[in-house]
């Protein structure tokens, strides 16, 4: 099977006929000027060392070498071989709380935006690992199935906002249950559930779900976002804050005790997210401790590069061009290759 690895370079071939046209036009202009001085036959006797064909040969050698270079840049590939690659890594499911309380700004710029930046940097550290994303509020759903496509993961991350879920609340148990179902069936791979929340659990059952995950060999890491002192919840697009039915400003507080209990039940750790990168470093260190196993085996076809032949041809053509003089060589005056 034959193909070009970089076919866009083939568009440079359009330069070759343009150069040929320019060369023929220059020759025409040169011969026209010579005729103004006298008969071409007479001028030929006056300039015995001038070769009529050598400049043409040198031009075609140079043009052919340029063509070889263009084809070489296009990376011609012929033949193939099958190659099997095994990738080792861990699997991580990120469950992100997107309830309205995550809009609080007790961390900069807000709990939700800080969490999204943390996830983005976490994904950047992955190498052959797999990641899935779950968002939850009053219910949980999968935002991104488990994958090693980190570009898509970061694209999906940008679209996350509280408007994705109309049912408000914080169903941590539902998020952990869905996370347990999101892993691949691969054996021996380290599995981590990263729960990012302010800990305001309204549904119950979160500790029991974390215990169940731990029994299945999954570790539950909890990142608590926010401040225990509390913060009002801004109304998006306004300068107002959310109020309860009595007109009082709603204050949301980080429930660290709940987060710590969930992490302990899930055989993980609890880390508080503040305006530093401490939480990110602590989480990376824990994930790196997980057992790495074969998360993917790929069998693919690799094409053999064939540019070396063209490179040698280009070198030989340029060498021949350098060896041929524009004028007749007196050492080879009896050789009639070029008149």
Describe this entry's structure for a reader.
The chain is α/β, with parallel strands linked by helices. It has 10 helices and 11 strands. Helix 7 links the parallel strand 6 (191-197) and strand 7 (218-225). It is elongated, with a radius of gyration of 36 Å. The two termini are 45 Å apart. The mean pLDDT is 84.
Quick description:
The chain has 339 residues and is α/β, with parallel strands linked by helices.
The portion of residues assigned to helices is: 25-40%
In terms of structural class, how would the helical and strand content be classed? alpha/beta
End-to-end CA span? 45 Å
Describe the largest sheet.
6 strands, mixed
Uncertain stretches: none
* Strand order, largest beta sheet: 5-4-3-6-7-10
How many individual helices?
10
Radius of gyration: 36 Å
- Proportion of residues in extended strands: 15-25%
The average pLDDT value, as a whole number, equals: 84
SSE arrangement, N to C: EHHHEEHEEHHEHEEEHEHEH
User: How many distinct beta strands?
Assistant: 11
Shape type: elongated
Topology:
Elements lengths: L1 E3 L10 H23 L2 H7 L7 H20 L2 E14 L1 E7 L13 H14 L5 E7 L3 E8 L2 H9 L13 H9 L10 E7 L8 H10 L2 E8 L5 E2 L18 E2 L3 H10 L4 E4 L4 H11 L4 E13 L1 H17 L16
Parallel strand pairs: 3-4, 3-6, 6-7, 7-10
Antiparallel strand pairs: 1-2, 2-11, 4-5, 8-9
Helix pairs in contact: 1-3, 3-10, 4-5, 6-7, 7-8
List keywords for this structure.
339 residues, alpha/beta, six-stranded mixed β-sheet, three-stranded antiparallel β-sheet, 10 helices, 38% helix
